[in-house]
Amino acid sequence: MKIALITPHGVKCGIFTYSRDLSEALAEKGVDVYIIRLPRFGRKTPAILQKMIDQIPVSDVDLIHVQEEYGLYSGLEGGFYGGLKRLGKPLVSTMHAVGNLPIDRVIADASDKVIVHNQFCKKRFRFKSEIIPHGCKPAETVPREEAMKRLGIDARVPLVGYCGFIGAAKGLENLIEAVSKIPDSALLIGGGWHTGPGTQYMASLNQMTQTLLPHRCKWLGFVPEDELATAYSAMSIVVYPSVYSTESGALLMALSHGKAVIANRIAPFREKEKLGALTTFRGVNSLVKKIRLLLRNEKIRASLEEGARKYVEANSWEKIAERHVNLYKTVLGEV
């Protein structure tokens, strides 16, 4: 089986990481994956998108798989998907965002199959779709004392952490406020952010930590993949306070490191809570209580860590790739 995978590639981007891990897992299943590189940043034009379509080795592939997120195609999905359909190949789309009805309709009409990551996305998409969860990869860790030493942090300090993209929808101001109410703890924040409007938000967070958490917050900036084990291993618990999300690769990375995770009580995270992978909170006071409980109660923390490992095992990239292969076979009429 041979597929063309249209995706951002070779950039600091969650969809790139997702597509890389998926393509590697598909290759292990014997699928030949041709990467068709989508420029991640900058406004797209019809000419740029057509050039990308022209790069697809039509005679060499069985189907085309598009990674879709609003903004990636600068709102030009209508013309782009029309161009793909004219190639005459079966078309699969994975929705990393849902809820824009006009764009969703274009994609649903053009695609033979649409993949979403969870029940929340399936309901919000409104059109026919198949759920295939975001894959996970068990990650190696290092001893906590060693990780703390590498980061220059006293190993006796209970460390609450966040690692992921930093933007206004991530709710980090709530995490900062919560940790400020737990005097014996400290906060470790890792992650990059977009320049432009996002810079002002980042500056406000920095000022907030200086005011509420003097000498109790360490900013790591963007954390390269080979340093993630150190960051996560240092954290006693990890918090994802996002106010909106369809899925979170960063949260899944924390689970992949076997961490006890507290996440905001939004629908996609509630689905994982029901599976025992994490616990949720609602509001700053609730978050404070959850952090205190997990820092003090090793048994409950260990139970969440075990739940994280079980979730990762159940949704390994190997298993997710197998589900993709089965879907491809259905599209190609091989089953």
Q: List the helices and strands in order.
A: EHEHEHEHEHEHEHEHEHEHEHEHHH
**What is the first-to-last residue Cα distance?**
14 Å
- Percent of residues in helices: 40-55%
Strand order of the largest sheet: 2-1-3-4-5-6
Major sheet characteristics: 6 strands, parallel
Identify low-pLDDT runs. Answer: none
Query: Please, how many helices?
Result: 14
Question: What structural category arises from helix and sheet content?
Answer: alpha/beta
Radius of gyration: 21 Å
GO molecular function: glycosyltransferase activity
Domain Glycosyl transferase family: 144-310
Pfam family, one: Glycos_transf_1
Protein name: Glycosyl transferase family 1 domain-containing protein
Written description of the protein model:
This protein folds into two domains: 150 residues, 3-Layer(aba) Sandwich (Rossmann fold); 171 residues, 3-Layer(aba) Sandwich (Rossmann fold). α7 links the parallel β7 and β8. It contains 14 helices and twelve strands. Strands 2-1-3-4-5-6 form a six-stranded parallel beta sheet, sandwiched between helices. α2 packs parallel to α3, α3 packs parallel to α4 and α7 runs parallel beside α8.
